[in-house]
TrEMBL record:
Cellular component terms (Gene Ontology): maltose transport complex
Chief site of localization: membrane
Membrane disposition: Multi-pass membrane protein
GO terms under biological process: maltodextrin transmembrane transport
Molecular function GO labels: ABC-type maltose transporter activity
Native species: Melghiribacillus thermohalophilus
Segments passing through the bilayer: 15-32, 39-57, 77-102, 134-160, 198-222, 234-258, 288-313, 334-354, 397-417
Protein name: Maltose/maltodextrin transport system permease protein
Length: 431
């Protein structure tokens, strides 16, 4: 006897069989479920994929595995790109294939429970109502895959090859070398000394320059926010002016001012004290100059940020602290500073992440110089500017890619921490 509410003819309808048929060939499960139009669409999609992209994917996977077998005829870089595109196409196809299997299972379960297949109009309406966001997100995701993800995968792949100025296609074929490039960075003296020096300076640069610009911005915001200060609007306008000037213009002007031969800092200012500092020639003084310039460039944004937050703090809190006998330092420590940090911490974290990859100031000031004998990087190069030099100056693409991966992991850690501190990736019900 059939179960109550389920027609006899569907009581033995098997979801497992529907899934198996869809696994054998996309659309077969839908035909088994009597969803003929949907089944035909899935069949057409798989047949079209096989006949139009099958040969390309097969060639791409071969090229990614071998990177070519005949110099001058096979180009390893093109083969690598074809292979990566093939992997992405396979990922999209697998996604649709899994969707086809799950759809067959759901429809089979509905039939087994006695529900009838929806009409075509009802199906289209359900797709529009429930799949509307996905329909509009899909083109963007598809473009993002080939504009962002593909270059990232290409960089990741280069880090595991021997692609450099002495081994470049099409005259030479590339080879997969595993983790050799990363081992060179930490074990081979010619690379490890430079890598650790640049990495250390990158950390010092990030911490010192960013902390100074935040401290200066907070200090000025506290002064301007003091009730005793008049002409607040004019003072804020003047302090934000450095932010209005394009950063590259400011950096180039400072580069000229710090020039040891004709720069105004040495010739017009320090000469009064009998000093002449080699800003461009000595790595130490070049680093000091860069930190000062970045402090000048970065404090206006922090100042504007803190000014808005300070104005949102209730005056009642300060009045209550005064009644309790709180000093200025205690009010700053227990009221102002915690409130400011709570409201701006994610943005301040991103200031550190931004300076970690601040290529513009390093390159525009003195192109990462001055050069240091025996080192593969300039005296003020940070990781991102060193990657630029390795890529465009000496064509060490494999090592540049390896450093880029390390750089990306560090910045990703910063970004992940920042997102954890905001509501950007929290569900609506968990706000």
């Amino acid at each position: 006897m059939a179960t109550q509410g389920a027609p006899v003819k569907y009581s033995k309808h098997s979801p497992a069989l529907a899934m198996t048929l869809s696994l054998i060939f996309a659309g077969f499960g839908q035909l088994y479920n009597r969803r003929y139009i949907k089944g035909i669409l899935f069949i057409v999609l798989e047949v079209s994929f096989i006949f139009t992209l099958g040969r390309f994917i097969n060639y791409g996977l071969w090229g990614l595995r071998t990177l070519g077998v005949t110099p001058l005829e096979d180009h390893s870089i093109f083969l690598m790109i074809y292979g990566l595109i093939s992997l992405l196409l396979i990922a999209f196809a697998l996604g649709l294939y899994i969707l086809n299997i799950l759809d067959a299972k759901r429809n089979a379960e509905r039939l087994r429970q006695g529900e009838s297949n929806p009409k075509m109009k009802e199906t289209i309406r359900n797709v529009w109502d429930r799949g509307f966001p996905y329909l509009f997100i899909t083109p963007g995701l598809f473009m993002l895959t080939f504009i962002v993800i593909l270059p990232i995968l290409f960089t990741l792949s280069l880090a595991f090859t021997d692609y450099n100025q002495y081994n470049s296609p099409p005259g030479n074929l590339l080879n997969w070398v595993g983790w050799d490039n990363f081992k060179k960075l930490v074990t081979l003296n010619t690379w490890s000394e430079t890598f650790f020096d640049v990495f250390t300076w990158t950390i010092v640069w990030t911490l010192v320059a960013t902390t100074l610009q935040i401290a200066l911005g907070l200090f000025l915001a506290l002064i301007v926010n003091d009730p005793r200060v008049k002409f607040k609007k004019w003072i804020r306008t003047v302090l934000i002016l450095p932010w209005a000037v394009p950063a590259f213009v400011t950096i180039l002007i400072f580069s000229a001012m710090f020039n040891g031969e004709f720069g105004t800092i040495n010739r017009d200012l320090l000469v009064l004290f009998g000093l002449e500092i080699p800003w461009m020639q000595d790595p130490f003084w070049a680093k000091i100059a860069l930190i000062m310039i970045q402090t000048w460039l970065g404090f206006p944004f922090v100042f504007a940020l803190f000014t808005g937050v300070l104005q949102s703090i209730s005056r009642d809190w300060y009045e209550a602290a005064e009644v309790d006998g709180g000093s200025r330092w205690q009010k700053f420590r227990y009221i102002t500073f915690p409130h400011v940090m709570y409201a701006t911490a994610p943005l301040l974290i991103m200031q550190y992440a931004g300076n970690f990859n601040n290529f513009n100031i390093i390159y525009l000031f003195n192109e990462g110089g001055p050069p240091i004998p025996g080192k593969r990087a300039g005296g003020t190069d940070i990781l991102i500017s060193w990657v630029y030099d390795l890529t465009f100056e000496i064509n060490q693409y494999n090592m540049a890619a390896a450093i880029t991966i390390i750089l990306g992991l560090i910045v990703t850690g910063f970004a992940f921490y920042q997102f954890r501190k905001t509501r950007s990736f929290k569900e609506e019900g968990n706000m």
